[in-house]
Amino acid sequence: MFEPKIKIRRELYARLAKLAETRGYSSTDEFVLHILDQAAREEDESLSEEQVRERLKGLGYLK
Q1: DSSP string of 5-48, one letter each residue
Q2: What does the alpha-carbon distance between residue 34 and residue 40 come to, in Å, rounded to a whole number?
Q3: DSSP letter at 1?
Q4: pTM of whole model > 0.90?
């Protein structure tokens, strides 16, 4: 089955491979997929300004 592929610079791939290894991922692909999945979720879960203010208040940054 066809799998989508993306191109990245070799230098970036080398940095990602090193991070994947130090963070205990089984492969660079697994690490990159995890990062992309997190980024997509963050976009899906974008907060309103009021929600951000409430979170900052809860953390003690705003009164």
Answers
A1: -----HHHHHHHHHHHHHTT-S-HHHHHHHHHHHHHHHHHTPPP
A2: 10
A3: -
A4: no
